[in-house]
Specification:
alpha/beta, 5 helices
């Protein structure tokens, strides 16, 4: 699906200071690449979804950055959340900022915002969990096989309820 020229500009920019951190359901989302320092070819990515109010984090590995995998993972994560998904804030990558996710959020009445370009602090809640949940468990190695994808998702499944995240 091609990114329409204007969809990025239809999604409002929100900074970390504008979040409603008193109500569960507003999440930051981000991808963590498992490239091991070699960005050539396909490698596994982990979609990290973190609630701003509670810090609840769900993670799911996908085979690459293709929006089809990322969108499917987000829908699966939504089913696991212990609260209603009210809002999503992402960086500006096309795997997250696209017509499919934009329309989905409109249809499901989910607020969709994006961070300012090159401002990681705008999405600081999920950026922090990229380290404490994803990197701490998986490190910085390259993962790119179907077997590794399955193992990583099993690990994410075990860790999702671990209280010291």
């Amino acid at each position: 699906m091609q990114l329409s020229h204007g969809v990025k500009h239809k999604i409002p920019i929100k900074t970390f200071s504008q979040w409603d951190d008193q109500r569960p359901g507003f999440v930051g989302i981000d991808l963590v690449g498992h490239d091991g320092g070699n960005i050539s070819g396909d490698y596994i990515q982990t979609l990290d979804v973190t609630d701003v109010c509670t810090g609840w984090t769900e993670a799911q590995a996908v085979r690459n950055k293709a929006r089809v995998w990322v969108f499917e993972a987000l829908k699966q994560i939504r089913e696991c959340l212990p609260f209603k998904l009210l809002g999503i804030d992402s960086d500006n990558g096309s795997e997250l900022i696209n017509d499919q996710l934009y329309r989905y959020c409109l249809e499901e009445e989910i607020t969709f915002t994006r961070a300012r370009a090159y401002r990681k602090n705008d999405n600081c809640y999920v950026e922090q969990k990229n380290w404490s949940v994803v990197r701490r468990a998986l490190g910085y190695l390259r993962y790119d096989t179907q077997r590794e994808l399955e193992i990583i998702n099993r690990l994410h499944g075990y860790l999702r309820l671990y209280p010291m995240r």
